[in-house]
Design a protein that fits this description.
Layout: H1 2-36, H2 42-53, H3 57-105
Helix pairs in contact: 1-2, 1-3, 2-3
Amino acid sequence: MAYNLYQVQMARGWQERIEKEQMLQERFWAQQAQLQTSPRSPKSRTCDERSRVGAAPSVARTGTTMALVDRLSALEDQLRAERGARQKLEEEVMLLKTSSSLSSTGSKPGTPRTIV
């Protein structure tokens, strides 16, 4: 019985240590998100205040997770814009290739060229 109590105490100790490490990581990522976005939003302020007071990790994690989700969505928007620009350029290249092949042959596409 005493052995089991010792194991329970050790498990609780590790659980507390992991929760503290998670809180520190969340605080670090919240600060990183604030550095990247200069205007501070009310959500990030309330999240910081909660994490300083020592709220539960799930409450502190929500605000930081939202900051990371916002950053991720901004990166996805940027990716979509770059993908659209790339597709537009690829279409223009294809048009140029087809127009240059038509002008170099001087005939309709699909007809064989005669080499002189």
